[in-house]
User: Fold these one by one.
Assistant:
Number 1:
Amino acid sequence: MTAPTHSLLQPHDREFYDRELASFIPDKVYDAHTHIWTSGQVPWNWLPSPVGTDAYLEYMQDLHPGRHTAALFLSWTHDRNMISAANEWTAEQIAGRPQFRGLYFVTPEDDPEHVREEVRRLGLCGLKCYHTMSAVKPTWEAAITDFLPESLMQVAHEEEWVVTLHMVRSRAVADPGNIECLIRCCRKYPGMQLVLAHSARGFQPSHNLEGLPRLAGLENLWFDTSANCEPIAHQAILRILGHERLMYGSDLPVSHMRGRSVSVADTFLWLTEDLPVWEEKHQTIRPVLTGLEHLRSVRQACWSERLSDAQVEDIFWNNAARLLKVE
Ligand SMILES: [Zn+2]
């Protein structure tokens, strides 16, 4: 067997996996938040282009080796001229793979009827929106409807689509405007299945502790763990809303950075490989893949909430399979 060409795994990553994760990750992994891309579609430079389903599956061997893996691919690009190429690439890469799903990348100006036709034509199952496409500046302060207008929520409701939302604003799910919008829109568009990415973007877990109790009882609200390395962020979802709402997500390419997200003050930062913080008095620290740090945070959350093996399997497969109607 030849070694995979799509891998960033180093020996200390493998040691981390053996020590922290090998006994935790179930046999089947559904990755409910991740990305693939074609040439010219994305700005990151630490992974090559293109990455399709085969390359994606090779990269996942760095995180969960030997596990049966399927995924929901979230189409994404920073470049408006590449949006249709991104959506076509996702459609092409899930074709003939019955356990894989894909979301269509939308901008707030898109005509809802055109979106409906395109999602159907491409065989996708919902929408991916992103704050950088909103007209509000800075886009980090955009309201949800600035990049996911209600006209698109209405189509998502009618078509019973999944919509993955990376909320912004400094206090994320603790922001009063975000909370009001989530409650009102989940009730008004019950057919829309809304997934709050990055464990409700709770990179500062205090925001989840503060805001999530307000979201109890919304039957069409879900969460993916992607890229968030704070155990309490996931734990807040497990305890306040229940483990059946939470789904694992690798967030390739973020999974293949080195370092992790860290909560500080009333916000968070990213301790990335390039920062001059890894030389400590006691030792030189070798940062591991962010996807491995992320998995450890999910493990710690499951341990702390005393989840059974069956409940962990729900987070890693069954919840996503139910949402996405995967056999
Ligand atoms: Zn992502």
Number 2:
Amino acid sequence: MERCDVLIVGLGPAGGAAALAAARAGLRVLAVERRQNIGRPVQCAEYVPLSLGAMAQRTGAEIQRVHGMRTVLPSGAETENAFPGLMIDRERFDAGLARAAQEAGAEVLTGCRFLGLDRENALAYCRDGGGEKTVAYRVLIAADGPASPVAAAIGLTRLDVVLARQIVVPLIKKMNWTEVFLSGDYPGGYAWLFPRGERANLGIGVERRAAGRLGELLRALHQRMSEEGRVGGTVLLRSGGAIPVGGPRPELVVGNVLFAGDAAGLTHPVTGAGIHPAVVSGELAGKAAVMRLSGREGALRDYAGEVRELFGASLARAVRRRREAQGPGDGAMRRSWVAFREYWEERTG
Ligand SMILES: Cc1cc2nc3c(=O)[nH]c(=O)nc-3n(C[C@H](O)[C@H](O)[C@H](O)COP(=O)(O)OP(=O)(O)OC[C@H]3O[C@@H](n4cnc5c(N)ncnc54)[C@H](O)[C@@H]3O)c2cc1C
């Protein structure tokens, strides 16, 4: 049996940040990641706000800067907003964070899958190439993404998600902005073209009920973009994934189990931006574990409070906008997308 102070399940940005924070404080940290290679395959459009700039630099993940976001409405009308940020290499970002955690003393096990939990005895069951292992933990941080096997093991409800598909394509005309396409064809989601130097991420996310059409929609979008001479016709890479869109899960803490990042439902339900909240909540979860294990009784409860205070209002607004009746026209889209004044206005009466 392995023993640790803090067991971290999943080494995306939330798990990496949690492992780093807890290991830096001297705790015995074990982080398990089911993938053999941290960060690979990349399932992300790779945009982060400038606030993650220092971390992107430290991990060698910065690819290029973007100054703004262009939004294309169903009518074809375009609008541009200042949305300064960075395009990053997600694999380098996630791997760099995990490496920093290792350097701070965390033990990292890749190719190791969390299987189940005996919460009463604070035991987790995992399996890697060497077989099954039992891990005795004092605090467990679930940073295991939108499907959160830890949440499932506890019996918590599954998070509502949007499903996405993405291709990496050659970028013919360089861009220093991100581009978003709103359309009735993309219910509950949108399409994007995000630059990465000489390549671009081209993707679409939609509600589950429309997911069967994702392949066809993405092919049509790719064809249109290549006919317009903006991207090349070759597909360099394919990926996809799920994006939580229902807001924070009601239980951010269950006993001595904390949820962070996508596992906690912290991704923005309208934009799908989840790297920043994953890093912030991961770090807070790591620090909460440190405080709890140094004797502060309410530290884990305080974690839930801090997360809600930081992200609650913005996530609640985004959830409301998604729920409101939507239509295919520009007007309805303006109310449901962050680039427009209508999104931020509260209607009275
Ligand atoms: C197509 C797409 C595009 C996106 N684009 C952006 C974007 O441009 N900007 C942005 O900010 N956000 C974007 N997001 C969202 C962003 O990727 C997530 O919010 C972010 O990855 C959340 O980080 P996390 O650490 O919480 O979870 P994850 O990154 O999902 O990490 C969870 C980790 O847990 C591991 N794991 C799962 N189950 C187990 C298990 N049983 N045992 C061990 N390990 C396990 C997984 O392998 C994974 O490595 C996008 C998402 C998708 C799907």
Number 3:
Amino acid sequence: MDGLTCDGCGETLLLDSEVRYVLRVEGFAAYDPLEITRQDLERDLEEEMRRLLDVLAKKGAEEAQDEVHRTFQFDLCPRCWRDFLQDPLSAIRRPAGGG
Ligand SMILES: [Zn+2]
């Protein structure tokens, strides 16, 4: 992330290659559109809010943030950029059903 070396392979950027690539990754929690039912309106929202705040208070700020929104930025050399484009999800892919 310093713009001087490739975060993939450690190669010196702009000395060893004429172009560098900046990869920005943003991940955030997505919720389905809210559908409000009578049951929702009858819930004790104050109690629920207290429970939620209690859960959040027990988590660290970073853990709570990780669950909602994170961004990353990486510098890549042309070779690592091509490798990334080949399979952007390679780092997180697991066999189906493997958990
Ligand atoms: Zn590289």
Number 4:
Amino acid sequence: MKNVLHIKSGLQGEHSYSIQLGDAIIKRLQETYPGIRIRTRDLVREGFPHLQTETVNAFFTPEESRTPEQNDAIRNSERAIRELFEADILVIGVPMYNFNIPSQLKAWIDHIARAGITFRYGEHGPEGLVKNKKVYLALATGGIYTEGPNQELDFIPAYLKAVLGFMGMTDIEIIRAEGTAMPTTKAVAVEKALKTVDI
Ligand SMILES: Cc1cc2nc3c(=O)[nH]c(=O)nc-3n(C[C@H](O)[C@H](O)[C@H](O)COP(=O)(O)O)c2cc1C
């Protein structure tokens, strides 16, 4: 049985295009793999903290030497990593805010990128330890970034491929709802994006 981790980071609840797209991808997965288990984390509704000095200090303290306060400081990280390893498939909703990913999603990434757990430095340089995952990125952008003058501002796919790939997640499919802020494209953005999904 497959486990799916669905990460949401859109600010506008059910009106968020990235959430609508992520939900539609989940529906496809359920049709293709009956009985799959879905775990959903809405980083905006549930909240996800930024890294603090205490968090990073606790990361770098060996497990057996951590104080109760340090264990507390890494609770979010430990849970997020456990959920990550348990998943076979990740669906990550990614809205573009000010040309980048939401800070909540960045915070989640900061908590899962842990030396010795999700990546390590070996003889041949860094090695990702989160292997055999399929990742679907449900990316929503107000403008169009796959063609035209905005192409050079399309940082999100490169960043997410780099950071997830660094942790070993290299099988990444990007599904894009584009032009969600434009009157001519917003009505069909999700429908058009779903035509590109290979599930
Ligand atoms: C705070 C904020 C910043 C945004 N910045 C950008 C931007 O830099 N470029 C862009 O094309 N659209 C931008 N938009 C539009 C969003 O990308 C668009 O609404 C998209 O659908 C967001 O995903 P969501 O619907 O899941 O929230 C922004 C929207 C908000 C609310």
